[in-house]
Every structure is written in structure tokens, then in C-alpha cells.
Amino acid sequence: MTATHDGRRVLRTAAVGKTDAEWFERHGFAVVQHLVVLRRDLDDITSLLHHSPVAGVDVSSHAFARRLARRADRAIGDALVALDGTGFGGDWQLTVDALFHACRSTPTHRVFVARQLGVDIAAPLGYAIVGVAYEAAYLQRLVVAPKHRGRRIATTLVVAGMTWARRNGARRMLVNTEPDNSAALALYRSLGFTTDADGLVVLERATSELS
Questions:
Q1: What span, in angstroms and rounded, lies between the C-alpha atoms of 181 and 35?
Q2: Distance CA 204, CA 211 (A)
Q3: Domain contains 189
Q4: Is this model's pTM higher than 0.70 or not?
Q5: What is the number of domains present in the chain?
Q6: Residue 61, H or E segment
Q7: Dihedral sign, Cα of residue 125, residue 68, residue 95, residue 173
Q8: Which of 54, 63, 162, 202 satisfies CB 3.0 to 4.6 Å to 33 for a cystine?
Q9: In the Cβ-directed half-sphere of 72, how many Cα atoms lie within 13 Å?
Q10: Mapping DSSP to helix (H, G, I), strand (E, B) and coil, where does residue 91 land?
Q11: What would the pLDDT profile of 75-109 be if each residue is shown by its tens digit?
């Protein structure tokens, strides 16, 4: 994908493993981000049932249309992108089109949105994107508004995603995060995720180098 970084137009890869990273490096790309990969077996998720819902918070799930024609989908997308910027600033924040692209990257997906009971979904407290491909589920995005962190909203969103993924045939869930994101690592490990030996990297190359 193309992106803007430090005022430069760059080509940026998705998160890739060691073998793919070596290919990109041979072709002039440089690593700009390291990621830790965690996984969780979903065959037994009964231990998740003790996670009680957060009082006064409702979690709804949405499957967005393949096209962006539905006005309701677009309105939710705008609200989620605004929230996304509180967790992923700068180059890493999703646009509405990137949000919908993430949803379409797996054969089936759900977007879980947390909101205060009685409050319109256009004011979300947090959201998560979960996709399922064959027997693997991917927690693709997780953001909670800064002033609502520490209320177990992130836990509620992840548990909702894991439960839905298991019901839709997934046997395991994978997620990645930055190695210095101690809050995210603590959350995932509290829910039974373990760290993979091999991580992922994101690489970039300036578009001017391609001319």
C-alpha cells in the first residue's frame, strides 16, 4: 500500500514474516516496525465465561456490505475512524476505505462496537475487527477511547470476538502488537494468549526510489 511518512510518499508492506521480509529487503525495503505475534487456542473458551459484561456498556456486532453504498455502514465507519485516531495516530490511523478493506481481507468478519447504553453508535467507546479465514481468526484492530480505558471494555470486545470466531469455525486466534505495548500484551496474556517465537515486521520503500 502507499502511505505518507515524514512528508515522503512510500510503499508500505503489510505485516510479514521473516521469509517475505528478506525478499522485500533484497528489493530496497527497510524495516520500520517490529511486531509481536500472539495466539490463543479457541477449542476451549469456557474459561472466558467468567468475564462479566461491563455495566452500562453494550457491544453490538456488524458485518459491513461488500460495497460502501450503504449509508449506515459509512456513518459507522466515519465514527470508528475518528476513534481509531486516538489509538493509532499519524501514518498508522485507518481511513474509512482502509477500515472497509480490513473487513474484506478475510472471507467473513465482524466489527464489534462498544457504546454506552442509550447512546448513539456514532459515539463509540471502543471497537474491534475480527476476521475468520478457514480455521484461523485474526484480531485485526482493537481501540478503546483514552478516557474509557481501564473499564474492561477491551476485554469485553476481545471476548466477544473470540466467542463469535469459535462459533464460526475458528480453532485459534492470532493478534499482533508492538513489543513495547505493555498494556496490550498484558491484556492478551490475561486472556490466555501466548507469544509466538517468530514475530512480524512492516517495511517501507520511498516511491521516488522506484523511478
A1: 10
A2: 15
A3: no
A4: yes
A5: 1
A6: strand 57-62
A7: positive
A8: 202
A9: 6
A10: helix
A11: 788 899 999 999 987 777 888 888 888 888 899 99
